[in-house]
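thread: overnight batch results

M.L. [08:02]
morning all. the overnight job finished for the chain we discussed friday. pasting input first so we're all looking at the same thing
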Amino acid sequence: MTRKRLLSSVHTTPRRTALISGASVAGPALAFWLNRYGFAVTVVEKAGSTRRGGYPVDVRGTALEVVRRMGILPRLRDAHIDLRRLTFLDEDGGVVASIDPHTVTGGVAGQDLEVRRGDLTDALHTAVRDDVEFLFDDSIDTLHQSGHGVDVTFRGGGRRTFDLVFGADGLHSHTRELLFGPENQFHHYLGYCFAGFTLRNTFGLSHESLIWTTPGRAAALYAAGDHDDVHALLNFSHPEPPLDAFRNPAAQRDLVAAVFADAGWEVPGLLAALRDADDLFFDVVGQIRMPRWSNGRVALVGDAAYAPSFLTGQGSSLALVGAYMLAAALADRDHTAGFAAYERDTRAFVTANQEQVGKGDAALFPTTARALEQRNDMLRAALTSMPRSTTGRPAHTALTLPEPAPVP
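M.L. [08:03]
and the structure it wrote out:
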């Protein structure tokens, strides 16, 4: 059947139904585009609502065109943080270098966006909430594929059948585990752990970030504007993932406190704030790399399929682009051909961005004294020898989006 005939027939044939697990970035973005192409979409999210706050995230390169086509670019520009200074500190708190953030991120000043994660998820949810069904406080319990669709049992007790199911449920995707097996087959640990939380801005910071570093340890304060709170990040190298701490907040706090026990600068105060933080987020730094992103009628998108790690700064951008490409691939194809096209047309872009882990932010957290000295020399040199980029890193724009299919 031709593309035109398939799309025009949507009005006379039943709408394809789709369930998306996850309402952060990839999930609502995919819901937006699937709804545009005639799907009846349901989004299930284990949290009670879209999640507010969170560490700032970047929208760069090809992802900017995705949000423009969604009509939310003006709103995100209004929410842009406009980080103006990135200051690196030595062990005693002395200034190593204070530089333009785009020098490190490879971003393009005046084009790329940095917004609070909650501002991005709220914009995405607002763009689609009136057109798709959202099920909060629930999640997928079991999946069973058959010739007619995917039978889903929800943890809340409901049972429904969908034509297609999508896992957009993050790095530790339950959908992926149900479909492909344990996470450790696909998770590539990058040797770091981190703890993020917020605390009162008693430092006088505004639109800037301070990063204190010793070999294998870093503490960062991030002031996203003129607000009462700042984001704190404690990042450290660890030979193996601390599995015992993953589901135990007390163990997480104890581990971080032990690693930074003798640290100077403002770190003792950060550890005290960590003890009382009610928004602690602890995880390992890793990537998800899979040989394929679909199985039958179920496909993965965003971090669930190809998390690049926060060291690349590309997680949200990959989620937005991946959601667009997945929906576009299904607009005029059945799921078998559509999922194949999604992987064929998106994988090179994903790979190029995952490979950025060896550049930029990843180089900012050295694990040896020699590597730290080299990083500091690079930062000092950047003060005089590295002009602002006008094009950004090639990986950020390594994919040209297909034009949206006609609206049925």
